[in-house]
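Notes to self, Crp/Fnr family transcriptional regulator:
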Amino acid sequence: MMSSPAPEPGEFLSLLTEEEIADLREGGRKRRWDRGATVMSEGDTSDWALILTAGRVKVSSHTASGTEVVLAIRGPGSLLGDMSVISGEPRSGTVTALEPVEGYVVRDFAGFLHDHGRVAVLLLQMVVGRLRDSDRKRIEFGAFDTTGRVATRLVELAERFGEPTNGGVKVALPLSQDELAGWTGASREAVSKALRSLRDRGLIETGRRRVIIYDLDGLRKRAR
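result:
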């Protein structure tokens, strides 16, 4: 059985009290998915939300031409599927396990919010935060070149998932170049060129599903 790390700061589970967490888990059922498994599917209508307790997932959607657009990367403590449960509308994205993940499936999430008004307000604040993040990314797509967008995403990954290593920060998240391309709104070829540019500057080192950042401040400057 996987260990359950502490939730990421700012994620849903990190904002709840011990009593609220106990109530949430009492109404939930623990589930586990293997790496690569589909946790939720875009277009499905379902009555359950998921509290992620271990592992990381990507939230994505597909264009009419079939191109995958990565909307977000979520880690321990994240709340997934809440919008569909509350609105009753089909899910707006597909959630895929980037590594083995665990979480609590909560069937009556709307009922939990009804009984916990403080949590409902917290969720509203989180939704506003997601909208602001979405607006920020749209501005990035219009204002930054591909290398700037790639640098921005690498900085985010380093700050959220980075692990100290000799002389740098290792991003341990198993994210492929195709997935990084889907997250930056660029082609795989353009992302490959951007990564090569960042390597040539000595800012990063890349390998199969890993990135080591040697100059995080320099990467931040390139991101801007």
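- The chain has a mean pLDDT of 88.
- The CA atoms of residues 176 and 209 lie 5 Å apart.
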